[in-house]
Amino acid sequence: MLGICLMATADPLHAQLFGIPCQDVLIVLVNQIKAWRSVSGCIAGGEKCMYELISSTPSCIIAKHTSRRWNTVQDLSFDLVPTEGSSVFRVTGISVSETWAMLADKGTNYCTLYNLIEGRGLVDVGYKEFTNEWICLEHSTANCTIY
């Protein structure tokens, strides 16, 4: 089994909710992926570098992240879904390690997603995250300043 992290599921009880327009979140996430494409973002340590944008549409972002620490690759996707009758919407974020040995990854898959959300301040604009250890292994002990 591959290491996997779901920051949300299709179930609205397990979601990331944002209080700003969906298009704004899409733009911020795409720009953050592009800003962290080189290794220079990791000079001070951590994993906030080596992201690669594969594709983006108004409802989906596909990217890759190469871990500087382990030289492994995580496949990322963000699905953006408007919430009916509300100004908020939910995002389903998925990170899957391409290496089977990364099941116990010290929260790397979680941090790969969270760092993008935190990187440009999305955690400060009505952000609410719903996840747990069953959905995202080791998220509760993840140290995203390192991973």
What can you see in these coordinates?
The chain has 147 residues and is of the alpha+beta class. It has a single domain, classed as TATA-Binding Protein (2-Layer Sandwich), CATH 3.30.310. The protein contains 2 helices and 7 strands. Strands 1, 2, 3, 4, 5, 6 and 7 form a 7-stranded antiparallel sheet that branches. A hairpin with a 6-residue loop joins strand 5 and strand 6. The protein is globular. It starts with a strand and ends in an 18-residue tail after the last strand. The N terminus is likely disordered.
Sum up the structure in keywords:
2 helices; alpha+beta; TATA-Binding Protein; 147 residues; single chain; seven-stranded antiparallel sheet
The overall average pLDDT, rounded, is 79
* Name of the CATH homologous superfamily: Kinase associated domain 1, KA1
For the CA atoms, what is the radius of gyration?
14 Å
Taken as a percent bin, the fraction of beta residues is 25-35%
Q: What percent of residues adopt helix (DSSP H or I)?
A: 10-25%
Order of helices and strands: EEHEEEEHE
Name the structural class.
alpha+beta
Q: CATH topology, which one?
A: TATA-Binding Protein
**CATH class annotation:** Alpha Beta
